[in-house]
Design brief:
alpha+beta; 4-stranded antiparallel β-sheet; HK97 family phage prohead protease
């Protein structure tokens, strides 16, 4: 994987909603507070260091620049649909503390989407938070903690939230189970090696049968647009566009 392609490419990360709360307000709103990202807590991507992937963590200063620029961010469900809240309207508030990226909003219970979310959270159907971002700066280290562009330990130094989102999601707790993240890696195999190798790569990922079937269709679509003998290298943005992810 060409790591330079990760800079300015859309990415998402999810974590369990272990530290969140809904609190009823006076009137027709309920207050939501929770962390969309936590600092200095490593998580594996693409299987982790032992399987050719890497471990990633978020630096405590990663959101400083983007939050000062008043980014346009939506609060969504599963990164899709109409917003439950938005920074632009002043209904969504983002800031950081010593723990991570803190989300605060007063959700209008008259909104049918909010009503559905509350019910599903109470049942445990929606139990995680995720945020969409673009990497502006990162560093890589080896197992000894030394700076190493070929190392397997990534730290996000600066990210942009503008045009991104914070979402309540029902994806797997491990970020490498997200179809969108894994597909980006598999698409590179299509571009450089061919469809068969990409499908072999997908077999080693923790995808549901429906996700695997969808990935196969999209890989086939992308493979038709690539001349394998030329070993064309696609950017992540181009691969995502061509595969309609």
């Amino acid at each position: 994987m060409d790591r330079s392609k990760l800079v300015d490419a859309p990415e998402r990360r999810a974590l369990p909603m272990e530290e969140f709360e809904f609190r009823a307000n006076a009137g027709s709103t309920v207050h939501f507070s929770g962390y969309a990202s936590v600092f200095n807590k490593g998580y594996d991507l693409y299987g982790g260091p032992s399987k050719g992937g890497f471990e990633e963590r978020v630096d405590p200063g990663a959101f400083n620049v983007t939050l000062k620029s008043n980014p346009s961010v939506h609060m969504l469900v599963n990164h899709d649909g109409l917003p439950l809240a938005a920074t632009r309207s002043g209904t969504l508030h983002l800031n950081t503390d010593s723990h991570g990226l803190l989300v605060n909003t007063d959700l209008d219970t008259r909104d049918p989407d909010v009503q559905r979310v509350l019910t599903k959270v109470e049942r445990g159907d929606l139990s995680e938070m995720s945020f969409g971002f673009k990497t502006k700066a990162d560093v890589w280290r080896n197992a000894k903690g030394e700076l190493d562009d070929m190392g397997h330990y990534r730290t996000l130094i600066e990210v942009s939230l503008h045009g991104g989102d914070v979402s309540i999601v029902n994806y797997g707790a491990n970020p490498n189970t997200s179809l969108e993240i894994n597909m980006l890696r598999a698409l590179e195999y299509v571009a450089g090696l061919g469809e068969d190798e990409a499908l072999e790569e997908l077999r080693g990922l923790d995808l549901t049968p429906d996700q695997r079937a969808l990935a196969k269709v999209r890989l086939a679509k992308l493979a038709q647009r690539i001349d394998p003998p030329k070993k064309k290298t696609l950017s992540l943005a181009e691969a995502k566009r061509l595969s309609a992810i």
